[in-house]
């Protein structure tokens, strides 16, 4: 991630290297953007929404396609209630 500060953090990924994201709403403390991601060339293209509020955890939701449960699992991995993505991996920080 580029070295950014203060309100500039709300623009990272919107005005820079992730130009496929468009700002839905923006204020001094919060930015909500929506765009598409494709993890690999063989992956589906996902529409995601990123809700960044200064001094809070960032909320990320996959809007389309709906995430599917693997047949061997009982729940989606790395999601919060409401299916917000958990972007933390144990031991990462």
Description:
The protein is mainly β. 0% of the residues lie in helices and 29% in strands. It has a single domain, classed as Ubiquitin Conjugating Enzyme (Roll). The chain has strands at residues 22-26, 30-37, 46-53, 59-64. It has a 4-stranded antiparallel sheet with strand order 1-2-3-4, with no helix packed on it. The protein is globular, with a radius of gyration of 14 Å. The model is unreliable at 1-14 (pLDDT under 50).
Short summary:
This protein is mainly β. The protein has strands at 22-26, 30-37, 46-53, 59-64. The model is unreliable at 1-14 (pLDDT under 50).
Provide tags for this entry.
93 residues; mainly beta; Ubiquitin Conjugating Enzyme; four-stranded antiparallel beta sheet; 29% strand; disordered N terminus
What secondary-structure arrangement, pairings included, does this model have?
Elements: E1 22-26, E2 30-37, E3 46-53, E4 59-64
Antiparallel strand pairs: 1-2, 2-3, 3-4
């Amino acid at each position: 991630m580029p070295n950014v500060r203060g309100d500039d953090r709300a623009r990272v990924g919107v005005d820079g290297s992730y130009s496929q994201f468009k700002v839905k709403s923006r204020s001094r403390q919060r930015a909500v953007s929506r765009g598409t991601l494709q993890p690999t060339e063989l992956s589906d293209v996902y529409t995601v929404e990123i809700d960044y509020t200064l001094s809070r955890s960032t909320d990320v939701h996959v809007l389309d396609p709906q995430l599917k449960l693997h047949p061997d699992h009982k729940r989606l991995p790395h999601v919060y209630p409401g299916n917000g993505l958990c972007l933390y991996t144990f031991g990462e920080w």
